[in-house]
Each structure stands twice: as structure tokens, then as C-alpha cells.
């Protein structure tokens, strides 16, 4: 089993793509600490589709293995879970998302996660034109 996080701690990943836990769809390794940063165009927000998610369950009320999606631009955590869920859509209200996967040394490793990230046109983005600009259509 590989003990690295593919693409983790690499330069920023742009536009769209897939990210998975190490060794997915086989069991991830204990002691994983993987970080990815994804960025889309500045007028877009990041949409993450979590297709598969199966991590160790909470023990004593705490997640020891977890996936966290946040943004340093908005200082908000949009997703932070362990256990298993169905398909999830995570809308990050920023053009940059930070994805962090942690597995404890004492975890009962599971299948992990598989997600897709892409740019989504922001509802708050508007093109502003000065009043003195005229659009001329040639025929």
C-alpha cells in the first residue's frame, strides 16, 4: 500500500478535476495527512461533488479520521465529516478551496473518498460597465 497522498501538498490545482483518498478505492492508510488547494476563476465559486465517502466512524463522539473542506478567503468550514454519507454537493462561496484529509494512527481504515471539483458561476458576480460605454452592433 502506498503511503503518499497523490497530488497532496502540490501547487494549486486549477479549473476542475478529481481528488481521492490515498489508495482509493482500497482502504486508506493510517496516519494520513493530505492537503489540497483548488482554485477556479476569480468570478467563480468552487463546487465539490462528493461521489463516495466512507471513513472511520465517530468514537467517543469524535471524528479521528475526517475530510474537511474550507476556504481561507472566507474563513469558513463548508464540510467536516467522518463515517459514511451518500452523494453530497458542497458549495464553497469562494474561488479557492482547501481540502484536508486526516486519518489517525489508531483508525479502522475504510474505503475513503472520491470527489470532483469545478468552477461554478457565482450568483453575486456582476459585470459593471460605466454609463459612458455604448455597445454598437455592426450589421
Give structural notes.
This protein has 139 residues and is mostly beta strands. The protein has one domain (13-121): Spermadhesin, CUB domain (Jelly Rolls, Sandwich), CATH 2.60.120. It is built from no helices and ten strands. It has a five-stranded mixed sheet, with no helix packed on it.
Number of helices: 0
Distance between the first and last residues' Cα: 65 Å
Radius of gyration from the CA trace?
19 Å
Mind telling me the CATH class?
Mainly Beta
Q: What structural class do you assign from the helix and strand content? A: mainly beta
What characteristic shape results from the CA principal axes? Answer: globular
What is the arithmetic mean of pLDDT? 83
CATH topology name: Jelly Rolls
Strand content: 35-45%
Order of helices and strands: EEEEEEEEEE
Fold topology:
Blueprint: E1 13-14, E2 17-20, E3 33-39, E4 44-54, E5 66-71, E6 76-81, E7 84-85, E8 88-92, E9 96-102, E10 112-121
What attributes does this structure have?
5-stranded antiparallel beta sheet; 5-stranded mixed beta sheet; 139 residues; mainly beta; globular; Jelly Rolls; disordered C terminus
